[in-house]
Every structure is written in C-alpha cells, then in structure tokens.
Amino acid sequence: MHSTEKETEIAKKIKLLILDIDGVLTDGGIYFDDTGKELKKFNSLDGHGIKMLLSSGIEVGVITARSTSSVSYRLKDLGVKHYYHGISDKSIALSELTDKLSMELSQVCYVGDDVIDLPVMTKVALPIAVANAHSFVKEHSILVSEKCGGSGAVREVCDFLLKSQGKYDALMESYLK
After folding, report:
1. Long-range contacts of 90-93 (CB under 8 A, 24+ apart)
2. Domain count across the chain
3. In a structure prediction context, what are the per-residue pLDDT tens digits for the chain, which is 177 residues long?
4. Looking at residue 77, which CATH number applies to its domain?
5. Residue 10: domain span
6. Against a cut of 0.90, is the pTM above it?
C-alpha cells in the first residue's frame, strides 16, 4: 500500500478497524456445497493480522450484509467480538459500534470493496479499498491495498496500522524470541 505522510498521520490515531466480509476477508466468491450450505475461504495471513491488532490494543469489528455460520465461526476463532451481520444499512452498525466503544469517527478505519460499503467509508477517517474493489469505491477511498480481498489485503492494512503507530517492529521482534 502506497501511503503518504498524511495517511500515516491519520493511521496513527486509529483505534478501531472495521472490515467487510465478502470481497475483503474473502475473495468475494460465494461457494455452496451439495446441501446448499454456504462456504467461505479465509486467508490465514489476514487472520493473524487481526490477532496482532487485537493484541496491540486496536479493536476490530465486522459489518456485513450477509449472515453465515462460517463467518461467525471464523470471527470467534480470531477473537473478534464486534460482529454485525445481516445489516443492509451499515451506517447504523457503525454508529452503534462507535457509541458502544466510545470512539470518534476520526479513530476509525474501514476496509471495503463494493458500493454498499460507501455510506460507512465516507464517514470514517481512513477508508481503504482492497485492490479488487469496484472502481467507484476506489475513487472514494484514501488508500487502496496492493493485495486483493481474501488474498492478504487485510494483513496489509493491519501491518500498515501497526507500522504507523510504531508497534510493528517490536511485535515482529517478539516472534524471533
């Protein structure tokens, strides 16, 4: 992700990362088995990035229009406590979550990929689109990841936030011990 000093300054203040699911934490494909059960493919690098943020004191939330048990299972496994699903108006969930956590929109980063994410992305301090996002979403984002959704884009964002806040190097060093 190519950022300037301006984006890094915004990222220093982020205390909450909110993610979409389809097209951000997944590749956007919707898979069904023979029984009609919906399946999702998640990237393990993204998952560990989320865990690193949580361990570094940055909250993580998810707001998604769809509702599937596989997403609930994955988020529980990652330790994500703030999960809003089946939400068509994501602005409502944004307001509820920031109120619950007593956070200002200036402390929020949102990662999205499609136009349904724009009502939230246009309100937060740091809207980021994944590389394979719709072009209109990219136009209304401050940053665009180099990686596609479901292929490490979330990890790229997590690393960027940790680096901007001076937490990355010590965290990486801890893995060498």
Report:
1. 90/63, 90/65, 90/116, 90/117, 90/119, 90/120, 91/119, 91/120, 91/123, 93/63
2. 1
3. 889 999 999 999 999 999 999 999 999 998 999 999 888 899 999 999 999 999 999 999 999 988 888 899 999 999 999 999 998 899 999 999 999 999 999 999 999 999 999 999 999 999 999 999 999 999 999 999 999 999 999 999 999 999 999 999 999 999 998
4. 3.40.50.1000
5. 5-174
6. yes
